[in-house]
Amino acid sequence: MTRLPSAEPGDREGTRLRRRVVACRMCPRLVAFREGVRVRASYSQEAYWRKPVPGFGDIDGRLLVLGIAPAASGGNRTGRPFTGDSSGRFLVRALHECGFASQPVSESAGDGLTYEDCYVTAAVKCAPPGDRPTPEEFANCSGYLDEEIALMRNLKAVLALGALSFRAYTEHLRRAGVPVRGMSFGHGRVFNVRGGPTLVASYHPSPRNTNTGRLTHEMLVAAVESARAALKG
Ligand code: SF4
Description:
Strand order of the largest sheet: 1-3-2-4-6-5
Bound molecules: iron/sulfur cluster
Number of helices: 8
Shape: globular
CATH superfamily: Uracil-DNA glycosylase-like domain
CATH class: Alpha Beta
């Protein structure tokens, strides 16, 4: 039987969706990559997850945090999004400071982290080579994202991390028949989507942004606070 990471979404539909995601093998390139990733020396004692990484958190929450895809030695190792890598450390510290995460660290699926009023997932559920899924892989995985969003019945705000996840979310809106003309990515931009959740854009907390100062902790906290402000509407 497939082992699932802890803290599944509470409802039955969410659990069923997670099981389907974890079993998915639709993208041959990503299946080969996730299963063949070389174990880093510092994790040589660990069994890598090597499967699709389903979303994690409060499916009844009002905030969706959307990443691009799991990291090869992050989510693909731990089985939980934004867990066990530098992007996750940067993000979860900010979510904790803003009251959405129970603790400021995200190191393993069993570390006790819970999200409050917040669900975290990625547009593509499998780790891609070079951290970059192809357009076809985004399209293959889009059905799962649509289902997750449909399950978030209280959704009020979406925080899209990086231009690629921003595009994945606007593609979701397009599929739902929502006009997306004029919506372009820019850090800190806030879009009041007619009839839908507010969309907030942020640079992705990847090392290439955080190590260069393109995205600082304060900038990410400000983006999360923008999303929080939208929850009241
Ligand atoms: S990226 Fe998505 S669609 Fe592709 S194999 Fe992974 S879970 Fe399946």
